[in-house]
Write a structure and sequence with these properties.
265 residues; alpha+beta; Monooxygenase; Jelly Rolls; 2 domains; 5-stranded antiparallel beta sheet; 11 strands; F-box_only; carbohydrate binding; Galactose-bd-like_sf; denatured protein binding
Length: 265
């Protein structure tokens, strides 16, 4: 009889994690780091693939990490997984935005007049950058047009093709410019969204902005948000520049700093 009992116990099926109810599995999987969910857990079996791809799991992760409210539901967003990753990866994609490394990362640098120079805030006849105490330097132009650009490779930064083509997250570009108090200046910003073959799919131009002499407006932010730009965007080309309007030798032109390109939910 004792042997029969042992035999019966051996015949009992073992209870594994896969036997748990799906709501419980989702609770457990939501505790796993997002990259491991996508790259590892999703490959375990068909059930786990379906759970990792489910809206319920990503809503829960967003709620756990403060990216969504407790009352948000599936209908609130088209793709909660993309929403999660866009929030977590939100960062400035431009490099060397204060000139700490001179012109590293900037291309097509056009040095009109005496060319670009990097100076410390506030500089002669300049203004403090009160919006962010971490901004310590700026680029300044001369008496002829100075331009520089930077190209962001979205795929290299982690924004895969399906995300850019289907979700088309907002691409937000910003720049800050200022003049000296004793010199007027001109400023321009041009940002292009480019295809794999560098065709222009969308474009923003500020036009030529004139800052009059004796202006005391300080630092001014300019921004633009690209939305519904269509499939195929792979690069963002950011270009800005300017010159002074008094044509004085030296660096009396527009000052620029804290430029940014961000992909946002």
């Amino acid at each position: 009889m004792e042997g029969d009992g042992d035999s019966e116990s051996l015949d009992q099926p073992e209870m594994g994690i896969e036997s748990l109810p799906e709501p419980v599995l989702i609770q457990i999987l939501a505790l796993v780091p997002a990259t491991e969910l996508v790259l590892m857990c999703r490959l375990v079996c068909l059930q786990w693939k379906a759970l990792v791809d489910s809206t319920s799991l990503w809503i829960l992760k967003c709620q756990q990490e403060g990216l969504a409210g407790e009352d948000e539901v599936e209908e609130d967003r088209e793709n909660w997984q993309f929403f999660y990753f866009l929030h977590k990866w939100k960062r400035n994609l431009l490099k060397n935005i204060f000139g700490e490394e001179e012109f590293e990362a900037w291309g097509d640098v056009e040095h009109g007049g005496d060319g670009w120079r990097v100076e410390e805030i506030p500089g002669d006849g300049g203004f403090d950058f009160s919006e962010d105490e971490n901004v310590k330097k700026y680029f300044v132009t001369s008496y002829e047009w100075c331009r520089k650009s930077q190209v962001v490779d979205l795929r290299a930064e982690g924004y895969w093709e399906e995300l850019m083509d289907t979700t088309q997250p907002a691409i937000v570009v910003k720049d800050w410019y200022s003049s000296r108090m004793d010199s007027g200046c001109l400023y321009e910003l041009c940002v292009k969204l480019l295809s794999e073959h560098e065709d222009v799919l969308a474009e923003y131009k500020s036009g030529t902005v004139a800052v009059p002499q004796q202006s005391d407006t300080g630092w001014t932010e300019i921004s633009h948000t690209f939305r519904d730009y269509g499939p195929g965007v792979r690069f963002v080309r950011f270009e800005h520049g300017g010159q002074d309007t008094v044509y004085w030798k030296g660096w009396f032109g527009v000052r620029v700093t804290n430029s940014s390109v961000m992909v946002e939910p």
